Amino acid sequence: MRILIANAHGDDASSGGAERLVRDLGQGLEARGAEVSLLQSFPSREPGGSFERIVLHRSDWRDDRARRVRNHLGDLASRPHAELDEALARAAPDLVHTHNLPGMSTAIWEAARRRGIPVVHTIHDYWLLCPRTTLTKRDATPCRPSPFLCGARTRRLARWGGAVSQLIGVSQWAIDLHASLFPAATAHLIRHPLATDPEASPPSEPTPATLGYIGSLERIKGVHLLLEAAPRLAEIGVRLRLAGRGALEDRVADTVAAHENVAWEGAVHGEEKQRFFAGCDLGIVPSVWAEPGGPTYTMVEWLAARRPVLASTRGGLGEVAGTYGGSAAVEPSADAVVGAVSELLEPRRWQELVAGLRPADSRAETEQWLDRHLAVYRSALGRSTI
User: Fold this and answer.
1) Residues 6+ apart with CB under 8 A from 20
2) Average pLDDT over residues 260-278
3) Domain locations in the chain?
4) CATH classification code of 210-355
5) Which CATH number is 2-194+363-381 given?
6) What is the band of 23 on the pLDDT scale with cuts at 50, 70, 90?
């Protein structure tokens, strides 16, 4: 079977969770005997696999303002242009699986339909509903899409939604928000697979002494709430460690300078990243935006490192916060963060949370995750086997 995976940033895992999923999915499908190629809008900074790839544009919108403007215009036009048809002709797939579509737009769905190629789509964010993809304003407060501006854009993008026969969501929350845009699609919930690092051990401290955050230093991720909570965390004897890069770097640096209990590691990768997890007793994902993923890859990474994690109650993340062993739900506010950590300073409550951590067979979880995708592909192709 030949599968074309379409994603704006391909399998460049440095770009985000969708790209990591594309990498893992593509490699898993190849291991099952499928021929996988990638259609991506922008050049990869760190390509993760050796797939045959087709790149539509020479520049990345993050480096090229003109490219960013053309992306938005392309969303509004959503026209099945010759480049898309040529890409489909070159890849000659049996099935197209689309993910994030900036730079190629939903026109890929119609281009595939005209060639009689089944389409599966996975929802990772709110791009179809919001040009910022987050449903928030720049200050991270909730934004209600304008029915005249955002609504008109959504209607343009969604007009090809009938070509999608199978819809995958990484949370039920994401599926429910988008279901009306896909009138002919059957919806499937496929959560990110869990895993456990076999070399990782649960924290040995009788109560948590270090709270860790890893990810983008952005307001939508709730980093400002952690900085606001830092003085009160110091009062209860808890250190705060942060890792990542982003718009709030200056504020993070100022907080580190002002409070001895706060440390910032910058971006961490590989073994350095694993040491960061090991150096924290408790993780937190305090997102103020409605995270589409339930769980997010960050939450999975904390649990994989055998570290309990506080997860925001917003969006898809809220579906699993407190239901996965080793996790607890926290409202995204500074007061709630301090309250949740304070509660865990009671040794019995902390030990109950740590005891909830369960080893997960990463291979079995991944194989089941691949099985679910292949079942969706069989439905799209109208076959009992692949």
Assistant:
1) 13, 48, 297
2) 95
3) 2-194+363-381, 210-355
4) 3.40.50.2000
5) 3.40.50.2000
6) very high
Interval 25-45 mean pLDDT:
94
Digit-coded pLDDT (tens) for 70-108: 988 888 889 999 999 999 999 999 999 999 999 999 999
Query: Is it the case that residue 47 has pLDDT exceeding 70?
Result: no
pLDDT 10s digits, 175-219? 999 999 999 999 999 999 988 888 889 998 899 999 999 999 999
pLDDT at 130: 92
pLDDT surpassing 80 at residue 146: no
d(CA 65, CA 69): 6
Number of Cβ within 10 Å of residue 235's Cβ equals 11
Give pLDDT, residue 16.
84
Instruction: Read off φ and ψ for residue 165, nearest 5 degrees.
Output: -95, -25
Chain centroid, CA 214 distance in Å? 14
- Collapsing DSSP to helix, strand or coil, 171 comes out as coil
Q: Tell me 197's DSSP state.
A: -
**Do the beta carbons of residue 29 and residue 36 sit within 8 Å?**
yes
Q: Write the CA distances from 163 to 95, 115, 159, 177, integer angstroms.
A: 12, 11, 9, 19
Residue 254 has a CB neighbour count (10 Å cut-off) of 13
Residue 158: how many CA atoms within 13 Å on its side-chain side?
Answer: 19
Nearest one of 126, 175, 124, 128 to 151, comparing CA atoms: 128
The pLDDT value recorded for residue 384 is 67
Give the sign of the dihedral formed by CA 2, CA 7, CA 12, CA 16.
negative
Q: What is the dihedral of CA 365, 366, 368, 373, to 10 degrees?
A: 140
Q: Per-residue b/e over 4-19, b at no fewer than 16 CB within 10 Å?
A: bbbbbbbbbbebbbbb
H/E stretch holding 275 reads helix 270-278
Max Cα–Cα distance, the chain, nearest Å: 64
